[in-house]
């Protein structure tokens, strides 16, 4: 492997999201957003799946997003720590409701704009390139209550206005953009993914794919707008990645895995190729879906992304007999347990070779530059008596996945960069926990909202510092 090396301009960094880190949920003119009404604890999954009649804030529930890790007030301290590691890129998101508190206003909130201008300027001060997601599981709650969120076509116009504001106000500060985070997750976690709540007896698949159409048109439209405002802007889509392996070589299992892969890749097929894939017609017919399109939609969809970004935590397994009883509850994307690999405490399979497979699959399919924008190990970290945090398990996980990236580069895949998830500990999107930590930087915060919020460097902090300084050569 010694003759394979990372490109000299490879973008090493890390990733967070506004809704899991910022806190300050009503400060600076911000409006309520979908994540602000997703509680920690036993009611969390029902809300995430859109299985409740209405959403709101209950006095007897704890909402982790309300303070999160207080990045809103501590971003200068945090960016300085990222710079100390040598970050070349920092992925974060903009809270839509900081810019348009209700989502349907005609004029933006200047205080929100100033916050992000200051944040991105702080990154640039250290030579860190911001990679910014416009919609990271984060829809203004007013748009859910008033319009039904993405089931309503009016959302396209609201999103276009929001995106145009961002491209204009942060022009010169941000050139790497992502439209929707893990866009395929709306199929698996409809409320957290797209703000969808379901009515009794309606065809949920119809609602989800109509919402998906609106997001795909919105994504393509704002890609065009970004290029109009500044041709140097680079816009990507974002997939919750990881291939489905057939559980056996039984042909029915192989077909089941192909169908599950298509279910996820459908979105990227549209965003990267500019049209609905041929297999969609059969899929829609089988699910009794009729997607309402307007004249001009197909033309808008031809505005394809510049690069394909994706998350990779684990591969998955599919069989013809998959059902509720035999799939892992560890993730909203259901999978059979793979007997050939180990798993994290939360049941996520650890499969570095699966990353190489995923990268090759995506490049074979799209022939566009790729960007791995989430990858990491959620684990419980223990602070030693001397303040040290020996997270060797995280180092081992990341080392093997970096080796897999290197092999994929050797296979010919153009990889732009790597931003491991939760580079600073934050609220886990899946469970709402702080205990499920991903970061190089420890945040003193517990699942009930207690703690000092103090930041501590973990062992992995110093390890990743060396990885970046050596451009991926020093992995020990």
TrEMBL record:
One of its GO terms (biological process) is carbohydrate catabolic process. Pfam families: Glyco_hydro_1 (PF00232). One of its GO terms (cellular component) is cytosol. The active site is at residue 374. The keyword Cytoplasm does not apply. Keywords: Glycosidase, Hydrolase. GO terms for molecular function: beta-glucosidase activity. It comes from the Bacteria. Belongs to the glycosyl hydrolase 1 family. This is 6-phospho-beta-glucosidase. It comes from Biostraticola tofi.
